Structure formats: C-alpha cells, structure tokens
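debug: dumping io for the single-chain case to check the tokenizer round-trip. Nothing else runs in this session.
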Amino acid sequence: MAGVALPGFQCSRFRHDGEERDVYRRDPSNGPGPAVVVIHEVPGITPAVRRFGERLVEEGYSVFLPHLFGTPDEPEDPFNTGRALLRACILHEFRVLARRGASPITEWLRALCRHAHAACGGPGVGVVGMCLTGNFGLALMADPSVMAPVLSQPSLPFGVTPSHRAALHVSDAALDTARCRIRDEGLRVLALRFTGDWMCPPERFERLRGELGEGVETIEIDSSAENLHGIARTAHSVLTRDFVDEDGHPTRAALDRVLALFEAQLRRVPNEAAAEG
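debug: decoded output
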C-alpha cells in the first residue's frame, strides 16, 4: 500500500530483491519525458526537494522521488534533521563511514533507474544525489541506464579522518566502470558544493578530479565570509534549501548546468541518417 501523499505526485510501491519502498512520480503535462531519479537529502523529501522535482518536471522531465527516510513534505527543522540523520546512520542500507564501497541501498536504486528508463524510454536516466546520497550517482553509473549523474554536496563518508575526507564512497570496480563509460560513451559527471561546507570537504572534489579528469565538472560556490552574494557560511544544499532562483546567482547557475547536462545526455538523438547511409 502506498504511503503519505506528496502534492502533485503519484505514489506507488517499488520492489526489488525483497526491498520495497514508496516512489513518487510526476510527469510533464504533455506526457512522460526522459526520467530523472532525485535521491533526497536529510531529513527527507522536504518541500524544497519537492520544489526541485517540480522544476525538473517544468523542464520536461519525468521525476521519480524514492522515499528513503523521513516524512514526505515535512518541513526541515533541526529536530527533523537530527532524527533523520540518526536513523540513516543506523539503517543497514547506509554505510556512513565506508570509503571504498557504496551503501547497499544503491542496489535497489539501480533497479529503480532501470524501471524508470523502461517506463519513460530515451537514452537513459538522470540521477541527482544530495548530501548523504550525493555520491550515489557514481555507484549508479555501474548500470547502463544511468546517463547523467549529478553529485550535489556529496557528504559520505563522514570526514572523520583525512582519508575519509578524500574518499568517494564507491567501490573500485564501480569507479573503474564510471571511468570506462566516460571514455567510451562520452558521459559526464557534475559535482556541486559550497566552499565552506565541512560536510562536503574540498579534498573530495580534488579526488573526483584526479579520478575522472575531464569527465567531471566540479562547481564550488563561494560561501566564505565576504562572498559577493551573501551566501551563508553554513550553506550546504545547493539545489534545495540554499538555492536562490535569481539570474546571476551562483546556485541558479549551478541549476542551469544541471539542466544542460540533462539536455546533452538525456535528449540524444541517434544519427539515423548516418546509419541509413
């Protein structure tokens, strides 16, 4: 039975390998578009996460929002955030200190990506991970359906040691697959963070660039004390809570880059003329 209602979205249950969860879906008004799986941050599918999903729908994408923890559409506050963070830390689906292995929930998410691709068609699906799920896009690239991964403020593993701060929360095999797909298929990865975000340390982005080279575009938004846009030093959520929808604002520019990645990777048209020739 489907769970809590999310305004504007249809809720259904998705099951894979004995694991069943609610997934919220919304299509553009003119019918399904390329699929984008939005994997929410702590504390859950907040109103800000829902609005981000709605923005993608306005751009012509079918959005799938899997419910991993928290209460859908519950406002973000310190109590909800702390409760959801504690729950995520004790769930077996998340391994918050794993440096060279992804959380087990990524297996279920790969299956969801395949399901979304089958439902919507096209070259493949986009993925947006945020905060605790921010690095999941790398692990999900092991599935051929995933064509456009976005890593927004990837916060796992927790940076308890220097090696954790530089780690990517992905297995060596999955990282090798990501590199191969970048080389062979021309895929690109997009990663976003605020410069003052201690949960997503700069060493992690240095490692991303070292591992993926030109295959990754990293956007680091100035949140220092005297930044030009008045961004708080505590800013963390690039596309949701700390997003400012104004021309010229760096978070709006980051969203534009996300949309450009999806346009390039999810709306490819096969060169049928060349095939016919």
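debug: round-trip ok. The beta strands are 10-16, 19-26, 35-39, 62-66, 125-130, 146-152, 189-194, 216-221.
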